[in-house]
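Obj: model holo form, ligand = nicotinamide-adenine-dinucleotide.
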Amino acid sequence: MFSRLARPSNIKSTLVVLRKFSASAQNQYKVSVLGASGGIGQPLSLLLKENPLISQLALYDIVHTPGVAADLSHIETKAQVKGYVGSDQLLDCVKDSDVVVIPAGVPRKPGMTRDDLFNTNASIVRDLTDACAQACPQAMICIISNPVNSTVPIASEVFKSHGVYDPNRIFGVTTLDVVRANTFVGEARGIDPAGVNVPVIGGHSGVTIIPLLSQCTPPVSFPAEDRKKMTVRIQNAGTEVVEAKAGAGSATLSMAYAGARFTKSMLEALAGKEGVIECAYVRSNETDAKYFATPIQLGKNGIEKNLGIGKLIEYEVGVLKAAMEELQANIKKGEDFVAK
Ligand SMILES: NC(=O)c1ccc[n+]([C@@H]2O[C@H](COP(=O)([O-])OP(=O)(O)OC[C@H]3O[C@@H](n4cnc5c(N)ncnc54)[C@H](O)[C@@H]3O)[C@@H](O)[C@H]2O)c1
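Output (holo C-alpha cells):
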C-alpha cells in the first residue's frame, strides 16, 4: 500500500531526507580522472565514486578505462561513471569538468628520484593539460603526476600558451606529505592521527618537502635530534614505499586517499563551504621560488587566500634554505620544457 520510504511512521524523516537531498542536489560536479586505470587512478576513482558532490565521474586513460568504468558504475552511489580511452576521446572526457585530477604517468622504481620521471611524465602532463586548456579552461586542475615540482609549472605554461591561465586554479597535490606527517607524528606521540595537522610546505621531492612540526596542531615538542629524524622520515616517506614495493611502483593506496581528500576539499569549497584549508603546491609569492606549497584557503574560484609559511623556527629556516636550489631548478626545467 505504501512505498518503503513513505510508511506513515517514516514520513517526517523522509521529508527531512528529501529536503537534505534537494539542498545538496544544487551542487553537482563533474570530476575527471586522467590516468584512471593506474595504481593510483583506480582506488582514487573508487573513493571519488563515493563522494556525494560528484554527479559525473569521467575516467580517462590510454588503456582499460571501459572496464574500470563498467566495474565502478555498479556501485550504488549517484555519480554516473563513464570511461574514455585513447587520445581521440580525451577532449570529450574533460569537456565541462569542474575538477580534473591527474595521476597519469610512470611511478618510481627503487633508486630513482622523482626528477628521473621527468622525461616520460613531462610530455604526458603537457598533452593532458593542453586538452584541459581547450575543453575545460575554468576547471580546477589537480596534478598528482611526478615530478610535481616541474609538472605544475608545465601545466601553467600550457594554460598560458592558450591564453586561459588562472594561477588560482592549478594545484600540485602534496596532500600525501601532510597525511604522512600527521600519521608519523600521531604514532610518535600516541595521539589519533585523525586529530593531528602538520602543515607541509615547499615542494614534493626529498629535501624540498618541508614539514613544519613547530606549527603542528595539537602542539608537539621534539628534542632537536628527534625533530631532525622526523623531518627526514617525512621527506623520504615516498622512498620507504618505493623500496618496500621493490620495483612494483610507488605509493598508490595512500596517494589515492590523499587525492580523494584533496578533491573532496576542493568540491566542498566550490559548493560554498567556508574555511576549507589544504596545503598545495601553487603559483606563489611567498618565497623566491615561483611555485611553492603552503596552506591554502580554498573557495569557489580556487585559491581564496594563500595562508603563507607562517613563523618558522631556526631549524625549519635551515630546511627551507636547503630546499630552494633544487626547487627552483625543478621549476625552471618544467618551464623550459614547454618553451622548447
Ligand atoms: N603527488 C604525489 O604525492 C604522488 C604520490 C605517489 C605517486 N605519484 C605519481 O603519480 C603518478 C602515477 O603513479 P601510479 O602508481 O598510479 O602509476 P601507474 O603506472 O600504476 O599508473 C599510471 C597510469 O597512467 C596511464 N597513462 C600513461 N600515459 C598516459 C597518458 N598519456 N594519458 C593518460 N594516462 C596515461 C597508464 O596507462 C597508467 O594506467 C606517477 O607519476 C607517480 O610518481 C605522485
